[in-house]
Amino acid sequence: MPEQALMKRASTASAMIVALALLLAACGGSGGSPTTTQTTSAAAPSPTTPTTTGAPSTSTSTSTTTTTTTTVAPAADVQPCRAADLTLSFVGQQGGLGHGEIGFALRNTANSSCRTHGWPGILFLDRHGAPLPTIPHHTTNDYFGSTPVAPLVIAPGHSASFRLDVGHGVATSNGCATAYALQVIPPNDTATLRVSIPDGSYECRDANVSPLRPGTSAYP
Fold first, then answer.
1. What is the DSSP secondary-structure string of 103-157?
2. Residue pLDDT, tens place only, 129-174
3. Helix (H, G, I), strand (E, B) or coil at 25
4. 29 DSSP 8-state letter
5. Contact 200, 90 (CB under 8 A)
6. What angle do CA 38, 39, 40 make, to 5 degrees?
7. Entry pTM
8. Can you tell me the distance from the alpha carbon of 30 to that of 159, in angstroms, rounded to the nearest whole number?
């Protein structure tokens, strides 16, 4: 066989072998399990800040708390002194240079303390208990000294006192009379108390009244 014919046949056979190999490769690829790549895109979760009622703050700032203390007077929870729980007594009297000083005391007869403050109401009475002309002048300064106003708490069995500064033994255009008793209205009350003035006291209608003081200090 000529050499050229042999070479042509070999070339044709090679081409057929290559074509067959490609065909087998194609079939083998389609018969296998396909490889699938899945790309999953997941959104990052949004950060969630919990709200806790009453939880302490993590802030580094310092919070200053201001506490306001309301100061209440010690006597605020003590009942006012009432005439029903008080007795009125005559402390004494003295006079000089046309002035008369008469002292009186209010004693707490209750089983608990009571509070009082300021001036009592007064009314001079004659020998028969009838009222005499009386003009009280509330003052902290009179002929006998200075007496400041102060809230008082009277313990059971204790007293508070006041004094009267009256015109004494001097005839005036107002006219004078002898008072044999005094009627008193305690502060914070409307009820009255009465006490006799031994031997009477010569008074001329106007009277300077001191505020209540502890014990008998209003009438030294």
1. EEEEEE-SSS-EEE-S--EEEEE-TTS-B---EEEE-SEETTEE-----EEEPTT
2. 999 999 999 999 999 999 999 999 999 999 999 999 998 655 556 6
3. helix
4. H
5. no
6. 110
7. 0.65
8. 122
